[in-house]
Design a protein that fits this description.
three-stranded mixed β-sheet; alpha/beta; about 220 residues; globular; 15 strands; L-arginine/glycine Amidinotransferase, Chain A
Length: about 220
């Protein structure tokens, strides 16, 4: 089972600081041993960057293997750096925390109703069907869930109807989960792709086992 617990300098909210696709993981500056753990667990190349000059990359980025969507707070130098490793689309407008309002894998994408006018552009860029839908009437779809190409872990706020839409759009099974000792903001404590998952160190053993099972690691 390629699942490990991890924290960044004692902070278990690792999903706030990093974002992974199937081939790359975008990270802040970390100790070498932590970066090595990320590379080996997820089977990816790590790319060091900031977004908007700060380290909370997971809040300001979303995407899949076809490209990365960035907040318009990203600086020109950061965008140019990331363009060397991935296709980049900068989401314009007032909603800058794109990682909190977009959930995507290589099969589909769910976006907050707040940015539904961008659905066509996002669909074309990511190369997948994109649906505007909130989770439990909350527009932070990216905060309340984490999706890979193998599974999607969602918060308890997700209704059966929401799960049906997620499963149909992302072409996978979903399951309820919490992270870091009961948090419903599932993405905040997870960095994952189809190869593995890194989970915040405050996560209990039952929570970790549940997430690993939902994401298809046993």
């Amino acid at each position: 089972m390629n699942v490990m617990d991890l924290d960044f300098a004692g902070d278990p909210n690792i999903g706030l600081y990093s974002f992974s696709t199937e081939s790359h993981c975008f990270i802040p500056k970390l100790k070498n041993r932590i970066e090595k753990t990320i590379r080996e667990t997820l089977g990816v190349k790590t790319i060091k960057t900031t977004i908007a000059g700060i380290n909370i990359l997971g809040i300001f980025a979303a995407g899949n293997s076809n490209g990365i969507i960035l907040s318009n707070l990203a600086r020109k130098t950061e965008i140019e750096n990331l363009k060397r490793h991935a296709n980049i689309y900068v989401l314009e407008g007032r909603y800058t925390a794109v990682g909190n309002i977009i959930l995507a894998n290589d099969k589909g994408c769910i976006i907050s109703d707040k940015i539904k006018k961008y659905a066509g552009e996002i669909s074309d860029f990511l190369g997948v069907k994109t649906v505007a839908h909130n989770i439990g009437k909350l527009d932070i779809v990216g905060s309340l869930s984490i999706a890979t190409n193998k599974g999607c872990a969602v918060s308890k706020f997700t209704t059966p109807k929401d799960m049906e839409i997620l499963e149909k759009t992302l072409s996978l099974k979903t399951g309820y989960a919490t992270i870091n000792f009961g948090s419903n903001f599932v993405k905040s404590g997870v960095i994952a792709n189809s190869n593995g998952a890194l989970i915040g160190t405050r996560t209990t053993s039952p929570e970790m086992q549940n997430i690993a099972e939902i994401l298809g690691f046993f």
